[in-house]
Structures are given as structure tokens and as C-alpha cells.
Write a structure and sequence with these properties.
Blueprint lengths: L1 H24 L36 E5 L4 E4 L2 H9 L1 H4 L8 E7 L6 E3 L4 E4 L14 E2 L2 H11 L2 E4 L5 H6 L5 H4 L6
Antiparallel strand pairs: 1-2, 1-3, 3-4, 5-6, 5-7
Length: 183
């Protein structure tokens, strides 16, 4: 009986271990509820909206992580929202349902914020990477309101940033105006 159990255990180990190793070696897709952490932005990454290099603007960076763990990096919250409000224009492989996580940089403290819990300031004197109006992001309503009190503007929850809000910023549309801000 012991020999039989020993043989079964050996077969199990010989079959199961390679399968388990293979499972960890394959690229994983995020299941619903899995946390998708932000990725480190490299200096080569370009914003799909304007072509700029987000890593050059650490106070303004944003990113989208898709459920297949691919990501897109943005030089500013405004370009992130331009992307989100018109994904078909900027992204062919993924749709809105493929978004697993969105992150913004905390303008005051640095570091990544889960975008849906962030607060942004509309209409402040802070100028984004293209030296135009943008949406500095903060980790709380209180921090956003304090910034607005000192720099003008109005605090908005992430979900309150509509396409109308983005249009009110003016700014750019690289494709329509022929701009290439990849400096």
C-alpha cells in the first residue's frame, strides 16, 4: 500500500509541478476584483493624445491600466480625460470595458492616486505641460479645495469631469491642429 501511495504521489509531483510552473510563466489577465497597480513610466512612453513624454512631467502624469495589463501613459489629467471621452480615436485594441485601473499623480505630494477617488481643480492658475489650463489632482476634497483657495479654481470629483469640462479648458487637439508636442 505504501508503495502504491508513493508511486501516486511521485506521478502527481511529476505532472502537477510543471503545470503549476507553466501557469505562473504565462501572462496573466486580470480577473474582476484583482488589483492592477500603476506601472513605472519610462522616458520612452508617449501620450497617445498629444505625443508628449509623460515622464518629463512628474506632477501631471496619469495612466490607464487595461485588464490585460497593457497600459497607456498621459502627460496630464486633461489628456487622460480626452482619451477616456473618445477612446475609439486614440486606442484601437481596447475599449472602455477593458479599463482595469486609472491613476493620476498627486500634484502636491507626488505618488499615484486611484483616479476615481481623486479630486481635481478646474480653473486654477497652475499650467500643465503645454503651458495651458489643466486639472491638477489631489488625494482629497480638502486638499483640492485648499489648492483652489490659494490658486483659484474649483474642486471637482473625478466623476464630475465631463467632456464639457475638458472642452472648457481649451488647449489642444493634436490631430485637428497638426501639433506634435513631442519635445
Amino acid at each position: 500500500m505504501l508503495r502504491f501511495l508513493s508511486a501516486v504521489l511521485r506521478r502527481f509531483v511529476l505532472i502537477a509541478l510543471p503545470l503549476i510552473a507553466l501557469m505562473f510563466a504565462l501572462p496573466s489577465h486580470a480577473a474582476e476584483g484583482d488589483a492592477l497597480p500603476p506601472v513605472a513610466l519610462t522616458k520612452e512612453m508617449r501620450c497617445p493624445v498629444c505625443g508628449m513624454y509623460p515622464a518629463r512631467y512628474p506632477k501631471w502624469m496619469a495612466q490607464v491600466i487595461f485588464t490585460d495589463r497593457e497600459s497607456k501613459a498621459f502627460d496630464s489629467p486633461a489628456d487622460l480625460f480626452r482619451f477616456l471621452h473618445n477612446m475609439a480615436r486614440y486606442e484601437r485594441k481596447h475599449g472602455a470595458a477593458d479599463i482595469g485601473a486609472i491613476y493620476l499623480t498627486d500634484y502636491a505630494k507626488g505618488g499615484w492616486l486611484e483616479a476615481k477617488r481623486s479630486w481635481l481643480v478646474l480653473g486654477s492658475s497652475a499650467r500643465g505641460p503645454m503651458n495651458n489650463a489643466d486639472l491638477p489632482a489631489f488625494d482629497s476634497q480638502a486638499a483640492a479645495e485648499q489648492f483652489a483657495k490659494s490658486n483659484g479654481g474649483k474642486a471637482l470629483a473625478f466623476d464630475a469631469v465631463t467632456s464639457g469640462v475638458i472642452s472648457s479648458l481649451g488647449g489642444h487637439d493634436a490631430a485637428e491642429h497638426g501639433h506634435d508636442h513631442a519635445h
